[in-house]
Amino acid sequence: MTTLDKPMAQGGHAQPNSADTQSIWALRWRRFRGHRTGVASLVVLALLIVFCLMAGPLEAWRGIDATQTDLFKRYLPISAEHWLGTDDAGRDVLARLMYGGQVSLLVGLLATIIGGVFGVSLGLLAGYYGGRLDNALMRLTDGMIALPLLPLLIVLGAVDLTKLGFSTEAAHSQSVAFWRIILIIALVDWTAIARIVRAATLSVKERDYVSAARGSGANALYIMARHILPNTITPIIVAFTLTVGRVILFESVLSFLGFGIVPPTPSWGNMLNNAQELVTTAPALAIYPGLLIFVTVIAVNFLGDAMQHAFDPRSEK
Amino acid sequence: MASFITRRLLQTFVVLLVMSFVIYGLMGLMPGDPVDVMAASQPGMTPEVMANLRAIYGLDQPLMVRYARWLMAVMSGDFGFSRTHARPVLEVLTPALLQTCKLMLASFTLSVILSLILGVSSALKPGGWVDGFVSLFAFAGISVPIFWLALVLILTFAVGLQWLPASGMGQVGDFGFWDQVRHLTLPVLALTLANTGQFTRYVRAAMIETLQMDFVRTARAKGSGSRRVIFVHALRNAMVPFVTIMALSFGSLFSGALVTETMFAQMGMGKMIYDSILSNDFNLALIGLLFATFTTLMANLLADLAYVALDPRIRLE
Amino acid sequence: MIFRTTLAALGVAGLMMTAAPAQAAKDQLTIGVAQFPSTLHPNIDAEVIKSYTLGFVIRNITAFDKDWKNTCLSCTELPSVKNGTAKIIDLPNGGKGMEVTIKLKPDLKWADGKPVTTKDLEFTWRIARDPKTGFSNSQPWTRAVKVDIVDATTAVLTLDKVLSSYNEWDQILPEHIEGPVYEKAKEAGDYVKQTTYARNPTTPGLYNGPYMVTGYTSGSQVVLEPNPYWAGTKPGFKRIILKLIENTAALQANLLSGDVDMIGGEGVGLSIDQVLELRKQHPDRFEYLFKPSLNYEHIDLQNGNPLLKDLRVRQALIYSADRKTLTDRLFQGLQPVADTWVNPLSANFTKDTLHYPFDLAKAKALLAEAGWKPGPDGICRDAAGTRLSLEFGTTAGNRLRELQQAVLQNNWKAACIEVRIKNEPARTFFGETMKKRTYGGLAMYAWSSSVTESPRRTLASDNIPTEANGWGGANYINFSNSRMDELITKAESALDPEEAKALWAEMEQIYAKELPVIPLFFRSEAHVYPKWLKGYEPTGHGHYGSMFSENWRAAE
Within 10 Å of residue C423's Cβ, how many Cβ atoms? Predict the structure, then answer.
C-alpha cells in the first residue's frame, strides 16, 4: 500500500497541461486496450454493475420479492422459479445477491470517494504549502499508518452516539448505521492517496506555468484546482480503483466481526458471514457471495494494474 | 545518528501518550460500562451489587480521573489487572504474544521467501506466461476474503481429507514440536497465501524498476557478465524498497491477525485485543493496543535505519 | 502368495492405523465450546460457560436434576419443613424467618484429600456477604443472615425471610485454600484479584467434584482429570478437554473432522438450526438430543408507545404471528410455542390461560374494531392518518433471531402492520436500549431463569429500571400491576407447593390477558454427541448436565 504510490507519483507528472490532453487520453486508451486482462476486468466489472442494477427489473419481471420470506421454501435448490435457489428464510438468493451487490459496491464507492477527497485535500495542502504544514500533515499520515487500525475501528464502531449528544432516534437509525460504516472505512484508506497526491503536487508546483500563475497573483485555491489537481489526476484514478477493491473486502471483514451492514439489508459481506454458519450443510449460500466478492475485487485490482501500466509513460510495451 | 534515534524514540513516546488518551476516551464512549457488561450476562444482579462493584473498580469516578489514575499506575510500572481474565495484564499478554509470534513469524518468513521467488521470476519477463500466472496468484491472494479462505482450508484439509487438525494450539499433555506444527499448519497457510500476494507485487514492481535501470540495461546490452551477475546485482537494488516494506509490515505482525486467529481458535494478540475491547476490559485493551502501536513505530524506525544501511546515498537528518 | 500376505498385512496395518486414534480416544472426551470462562471462581461473574465447566469440578449442595426435581448433591438429605430440617421461626424484629439445617455428605473431599466441612460452608457464606470481595454473584448465600456450625457436617442457616427457595444452595469454597487469601486481601476488590481460582486454577484443593482441573490455558482449553478422592460414582474418562473454538462454522468443522467429540447444547456451542442441518447431513454419525429448556424467547412491547397501549393492537400482533409454523419450519417443532414465561415442564405451569393461536381474520377484525383501516400501501391507518408502523429490534449478528424477525415481519405485513427492523449489537441492545427502555416498539430476546425462580426481576414494579435505581432490574416492559406485585411476594414465601401453584397460575393468567409481551417459544438445547458416549443426560436448565458427568462413560 505504501510503496505502490512512488512509481505512480513519478508517472503522474509527465503529463503536460495543454491542449493535447485529448490525445494523451486517446493514447492511454489505446494502450489500455492492448492490455488484455485490463480490458477483461473492465468488461467483468461492467457486467457486475449491470447484474446488480438488474435487481429491480428482475423482481418485477419474475414477480418475486427479495424480502419475501417463505418458511416452506427454505434451502431450495436451483429451479426455474429461483434461479439460484433460496436461503435459510426462503428468500430468493439471486435477487438478494443483486441487492447485496448494490449495497457492497455503493459502500465501496462512497467510502473511497470520502476517504479520497480527504486524502487529496490533505495531499494538495501539504504539497503546495510545504514547510511546517507539510511536516505536520505528513506526520499525521505516518501516525495513521502506524496505528493498529482494525481494533481502533472496532472501538469507533462501538461508540455510543447518544453519549456524544445525538438523540436516541438519530443515533440508532438505519441510515446512521450505514453512513457510520462508510465513514469508518473511509478513515482507513485516505493515507495512501494523501501521500501520492503530495508527491505529485511537489513535482508539479515547480513547473513554469504554475509559477507563472502564482506570479500573476492567482488565488492559491484556484491554482490548486486549475493547475495542480488536473496534473495529479492519473495516480489518483489508479489509487481510487485499488482502494475500491480493498474497501469491498474490508466491508466483508467488518461484517464478519459483526460491525458491517446490518441485516435484513443484504450486502455481500453480511450474506457471506450469515452463510458461513451453515457452510458445512448449505455451502452454496456461502459460495455465491464469496465468489462475487472475490471476482469483483480481483477485477478491480487487475483494472488498477492495467491503468497504471497504460498511464505510465515509461512502460513501452 | 544517535540524536536521530533519540528524537524518534521521544516522538514514539508522545504518540503512545496521545494514543492512550484517545483510546481511553473512545472506550468511555462505548455503550455501558464494565459492570453493565457483567450485568448483561447476569440480569439478576441487584442495583446494590452493581453500585458496590462500580465503587470497587473505581467506575463511579469521572472518566478523566480514571485515566489519570491509570496513567500514574502505568508510569510506575503497574500495568493493572485484566477484569475479564482475572489476572494481571502482563500474565494475559505474554502467552498471547508468544502464540502470535509463532504464527506470524512462520507465515511472515514463508511469505517473504515465496514472494521473492515468485516476484523475481515474474519480473524477469513481464507479460510472459510466468508473469501472468504469478499475477493471477498474487491478485487472488489480495482479493480473497480471509475468513472465507480459512473456511475453505478447514473444509478441505480438516473435514474433507482429514490430514490436519482444524484448529487450536495443540493438546495439553502432548505439547510435542510436531503436534504444534500440525496445529499451526492451516492458519499459517491461510496467512501466507494472503500475505504473499501483496509482497509479490512489491517484489515484482521493485525488480522491474531496477531491471530497467541504466546500469543493468547497459550490462545486459553489452552482454558482459553472466545473467546471474546481473540478476544478483539487480536483486540487491530491488531489495531496498522491499526491505523497507518488510520492516514496516513486521511491526504490524504483533497486533496479530484477528480473523485468522478467530477462525483457527488461536489465542493471539489480535483476538485478545478484540475481546478485551468488546468486553470493556480497559486495562488489557489499552496495553494491548499500545504495545501493538509501539512495535509498529519501532519497526518504522528500523525500516528507516535499514534504508540507510542498504542505500548509502541516503542520509539521516 | 507372498504378495498377498504383504497386501493383507498392509491392509491390517491400515485398519489399525485408522482404528488406533478412535480406540485411544475412548478414555478421553473432547468437548468443543464456543465460549471460555473468565475465571473458575463460582461467585465472580455469572457465565453459562463457567457454570458448565464448574459442573464437572465443584458440586452444588443441591441442584435440579434432569426431571427438574430438586435433589441433594453434597448433602445427605434435602432440607424440608416436613421432616423438620427447615422450620419457620419468629425473628427478634417481629417478622418471620427460617432455620434450615444442612447435612453434608461425610465422605465428600477436596481433590487434595482434605474433607469438605461446614467450616467451608461458613467461610463461603461469610465472604459472600462481605461487599469488599467484589462478587457479582453472591445472591444464593446472602439470603442467610447467620450460620451456626453444629458439627463438621451439620450447619444451621438462619434466613430473615420465609423463602420457598430455602432448599436450594450453591457451591462451597475451600476454606483451607481460600481462607488465607481472603485474610490477606486488604483493599476492596483485592480478593477477586488474588483468588487461587484465577491465579492458580490447577490447585487440586479447589475442587470437590468427580473431576478436577489439571490444565487451564486461558482462551484455549481446560483439561479435567478425575478427582482421586471422589467418593461417588467413578468417573468414566481419564481426561475431559473443553476446547474453545469461537467461530461456530469452525466448531462444526472440528466436530466433523473428529478434533472434538461432542458439542453441548447448553448455549455454549451450536445453535439449534445448525444441529438440525447437521442431523440432516449426518443422521447416523452422531447422537442428537433436543432437550426443552428454560430459555424463553419473546418480544417485549414498549408500553410507552401510543399504538401499543391499545390491548386490541397487542392482541392483533399475537394473533397474526404464526408462531407454530415458525417453530415447525425453523426448528422442526422442537421448540414449543409459549403462552407465558412459564415452561409447560415446570411444576408451576397452568394450562388455564388465554391462548392465541394463529388467526389472521381475528387479528384483522381486532384492528378494524380499534379503528385501523388498510391504506393504499397495504398498511393500516387510523382516523388521523397515522400508519400502524412499529420498530422491531433485536441483537444484531444473531442469525436465528434475524431470521425469525424477517418471518414475523412478513406475518404482520399480511395483517396490515408494518414493522421496521432496527437491530443493534448485543452490547448496545442490552446495555442501553433495553436497560433504559428506549426501544421504539418491539424488542426480541430471550432470558433463562432457574427452575422455580420468582418472576420478580422481570415483572415486579420494583424492578423497573430507572435512573433512580441505577437502571437495575430487568422489567424492561415497565409492567406495573399491583396484583402481580402482590402475587410475586406471596409466591416467594409460599412453602406449600399447592399454594404456590395457585399463585403462579394467577400470575400466568394476568400475563396472558394483559399481554405486555408476545411470548414466542421455549428454546431447546441441541446436543450432538458421539454414539459411544453413554449416560449423557442434559437437564435443560441452569444446573447443567455436567453436574452429573460422573455418569458419562464410553461404551465398551
Answer: 24
Collect all residues of chain C within an 8 Å Cβ-Cβ radius of residue A72: 329
Task: Please tell me whether residue C447 adopts helix, strand or coil conformation.
Answer: strand
Do residues C502 and C254 lie in contact, with contact meaning Cβ atoms separated by under 8 Å? Answer: no
Q: Domain map of chain C by residue range?
A: 292-524
B128 at A interface, C-beta within 8 A: no
**What is the pTM (predicted TM-score) of this model?**
0.84
C-alpha cell at A112: 473511497
Closest in A88, A91, A168 to C438, CB measured = A168
Inspect the interface and report whether the beta carbons of A277 and C428 lie closer than 8 Å: no
Question: Which range is least confidently modeled, A213-227, C220-234, C416-430?
Answer: A213-227
C-alpha distances in angstroms, C99 versus B72, C73, C161?
A: 50, 20, 10
Phi, psi torsion values for B262, nearest 5 degrees:
-65, -45
**pLDDT digit string, tens, across residues C73-83:** 999 999 998 88
CB contact under 8 A, C220 and B265: yes
Q: Which of A7-11, A67-71, B241-245, C66-70 has the lowest mean pLDDT?
A: A7-11
Q: State how far residue A93 is from chain C, nearest Cα, in angstroms.
A: 14
pLDDT band at A135 (very low <50, low <70, confident <90, very high): confident
Contacts of B51 in chain C (CB under 8 A): 470
What is the DSSP code (8-state) at residue C219? Answer: T
**Alpha-carbon span C111 to C211, nearest angstrom:** 8
For chain C positions 469-498, those within 8 Å of chain A (CB to CB) are: none
Q: Model confidence over C502-530: pLDDT tens digits?
A: 999 999 999 999 999 999 999 999 999 99
CB contact under 8 A, C250 and B263: yes
Q: What is the pLDDT of residues C340-376, one digit of tens each?
A: 999 998 889 999 999 999 999 999 999 999 999 998 8
Residues of chain C with C-beta less than 8 angstroms from the C-beta of A168:
438
Answer CATH for C292-524 from 3.40.50.150, 3.40.50.300, 3.40.190.10, 3.10.105.10: 3.10.105.10
The upper half-sphere exposure of residue B217, i.e. CA atoms within 13 Å in the direction of its Cβ, equals 6
Alpha-carbon gap, residue B85 to C539, rounded angstroms:
29
Contacts of B117 (CB under 8 A, 6+ apart): none
DSSP string, C256-293: HHTSSSEE-SSSSS--HHHHHHHHHH-TTTEEEEEEEE
Residue B151 forms contact with A (CB below 8 Å): yes
On the 0-12 / 13-18 / 19+ scale of CB atoms within 10 A, A167 is exposed
Q: What is the pLDDT of residues A248-295, one digit of tens each?
A: 888 888 888 777 787 778 889 888 888 888 777 778 888 899 899 999
**Is B32 at the interface with chain C, CB within 8 A?**
yes
